[in-house]
Amino acid sequence: MQNSYGVVLASVRSVLVHRGWTMDGRLLDVPQVAQMLGVSQWLCWQLVWTGELRSVKVGRFVRVRPADVDRYLETADADRYREKARARAARLAATRAARLATHT
């Protein structure tokens, strides 16, 4: 499925291959995922804790599948679009209500 994150997904894959992290099912730790995505480790941990980024526990260690990173990027784009659409609809409704209140 190609979406606006298609370029990002390709970039993440190329970074993985360049650094020796192949997409062959190898599990990544949270610092590796944070480095791949260019975000803080804290944000990655929050994504894992909230379940937005799927992970597996191996003993006491938390690991993330590369496929789950791809899935997160694809769903994050759709979720962000839905949130923007809801916010836009709420602003429009508030504007209409304000206009009706001033004309009444």
Q: Can you give a write-up of this model?
A:
There is one protein chain. With 104 residues, this protein is mainly alpha-helical. The protein has one domain. It is built from 4 helices and 3 strands. Strands 1-3-2 form a 3-stranded antiparallel β-sheet. A hairpin with a 2-residue loop joins β2 and β3. α2 crosses α3. The longest helix is centred in the last third of the chain and has 38 residues. It is elongated and about 65 Å long. The termini are far apart. The model has no long low-confidence stretch (mean pLDDT 78).
Helix and strand topology:
Elements: H1 6-18, E1 28-29, H2 30-37, H3 41-50, E2 56-58, E3 61-64, H4 66-103
Antiparallel strand pairs: 1-3, 2-3
Major sheet: arrangement of strands: 1-3-2
Strand share of the residues?
5-15%
Oligomeric state of this protein:
single chain
Shape assignment: elongated
- Total number of helical segments? 4
Tell me the Rg in angstroms. Answer: 19 Å
Tell me the number of structural domains.
1
Report a brief summary of the structure.
This protein is mainly alpha-helical and 104 residues long. It is built from four helices and three strands; from the N terminus they run H-E-H-H-E-E-H. Helix 2 (30-37) crosses helix 3.
Keywords:
elongated, 3 strands, mainly alpha, 104 residues
